[in-house]
Amino acid sequence: MSSLSENPADLDPSDPTGEVHVRAEAYRNWGRWGEDDAVGTLNFIDPAQRLRAAQLVTEGVSVSLGQEFNEDGPQKGWKKRNNPVHTMTGTGLDAERTVDAAPHGIGGADDLIVMPLQCSTQWDGLGHIFDHGYAWNGRRAGDVVTTQGDQVTGMEHAASAIVSRGVLLDLGRHLRPETGELEDGYAITVQDLQACIAAQGPSSGVGRGDILLIRTGQLARVRRDGWGDYAGGPAPGLSLTTAGWLHRSEIAAIATDTWGFEVRPNEFHDSFQPLHQVVIPNMGLTVGEMWDLEGIGRACAERGRYEFFLAAQPLPITGAVGSPINPIAVL
Q1: Which of 37, 189, 287, 330 is within CB 3.0–4.6 Å of 309 for a Cys-Cys bond?
Q2: How far apart are CA 239 and CA 174, in angstroms?
Q3: pTM of full prediction above 0.85
Q4: pLDDT tens track for 121-178
Q5: Are 313 and 325 contacting, i.e. CB atoms less than 8 angstroms apart?
């Protein structure tokens, strides 16, 4: 029988539907910010929270948390997710050969890029995942996302919202100090999260309006060994049993250095991304994936400080259900 146990051993591996349902019902935020809400838990970030975050800047050191966008990325074409295709529409060679074609010898270069919005470092928007045909805030999925895009919760609504206190929980270093890397298939538990906070100290306390970053170390491993099945294959990640903790903590958003945020293979015989199904359409939680947390992981470990000012605004692509980003942490 499904329960709200936060011990993965208590999950019924044969009943993903029941395990998802009980958590969706328990942690659902529908109506919490009104029937017209479009940003879910990003509402936890208020001006006072941003002022507190700004006060964390003491060194002026900035760290990019974004992977590069190029044709050498991890994507394999699942659901037409391919790596970016970058094309030059004007080059220096063109300018050299046509010096007299433009006034006073001026030349220039231009380019374009074709890519899925979720092919590298990105946010999952609230229109990305549905639960039994329903989207965030209890709306019918077909009324939200149409052939014209997300008509209600498109990424443009979050364009200025995701600026707050960032907190890194380096589970890789905490649980595997000898390597700094969790093994694929490791399910991070509530106990793991709480123990990591205690070990890292007061600067890693997690609360309302924070953007929580979880470093597993998987990205470091695939950069060393090759992409392999990074895009969609086995990975360390959060257990479904962390849903209650994510809800109680009132974080604004969460991001990891893995393709899918939650543990893969998933914790059931026949399932696909059950934690997504709970936290995005029911909790209204914005989820980030494929973030590069190596630089910020080193910076935090060197300082013994795990909080920082974080700006991770999506591109305001009208109607998008996800967005590429280059998050910046400032220490």
Answers
A1: 330
A2: 17
A3: yes
A4: 999 999 999 999 999 999 999 999 999 999 999 999 999 999 999 999 999 999 999 9
A5: yes
